[in-house]
Amino acid sequence: MNRQKVIIRTSVIGILANVLLAGFKAAVGLLSNSIAIVLDAVNNLSDALSSVVTIIGAKLSVKPADKKHPLGYGRIEYLSSMIIAVIILYAGISAGIESVKKIINPEAPDYRPVTLIIVAVAVVVKIVLGTYVSHVGKKVNSDSLAASGKDALLDSIISASVLVAAVIYLIWGVSLEAYLGVIIALFIIKSGFEILRETISQILGERIDGELSKQIKKDLCTYDGVSGAYDLILHSYGPEQLIGSVHIEVDDTMTAPELDALERRMTADIYAKHRVALTGISIYSVNLSDPETDTLFHQVHDEVMQNEHILQIHGFMLDKETATAVFDLVISFDVKDRRALLNSVAAELSRQHPDYHFVINLDNDISD
Question: Which of 52, 180, 228, 239 could form a disulfide with 249 if both were Cys (CB 3.0 to 4.6 A apart)?
Fold first, then answer.
């Protein structure tokens, strides 16, 4: 499956459908003096523009890496989503302003049967289009398409409310046009804000998908000599490009050639299976085969894990010559002062085991 072609083809379908809907709705809205239908048409035009932005983003995101951008241009898709969000917000704010004007200076609409038919058809088209675009967006992992699909489904609700308002006016003579326009505007603004917030969160860097991180760590632990995998960090350079690093625990008797061969196999296998490039695999050398070290580790482990805010202890190493135990401690982000908790743990361990010196590294709860 060519991801770029799928995104462009789906976006073109969205453009054609929205342009046709906008044309019909604009004509009907102007003829019937309906501000709600006209605003619905404007909303369709904003959707068409969003699809154009999606196509441009998809085209630019696959540009080959160069000296200035050695990791490629995949993150352009996030910028595309932001632009789409801004377009939606602008459409919503403009719709709200026009609706308020109509509330201040109301004009009676003039609905006709063809008006209701066109709006009803638009509702069906938007439901089909939104479902299709959302499905494709999830399938090819395109935030821009997913955002466009979500917006299209929201539009179907808006068009349905316009239809209901028209029926109410024809039956009871009560015009809800301008007030409905305000509600439509608020829905549009809310949709744009949610897309913008989600995209900014992705650009800032979100937590790794739990299932993916667990599976990668599980796969790494299947290799001979590896007793644990920790601190998996993944950076997204586009929906299809994940680059990261990880720590693995290995026995302290492994040689450099053995470690080199192990890391090369891991890098190739993880990329082949998960499309994740592990550019850095760091080593925790553990000596738990030593009875003294093993005993101390289990004692320390049991003591520190009694605290509910301590999530994990790993990378335990004992230097018997200096009686120094070194390890990493993962503390929950729920703790306001994690450094204070670490110092408290260190003090308690020193009290419980006065013959040893403890060097504890504060680790972040990066991945599941």
Answer: 228
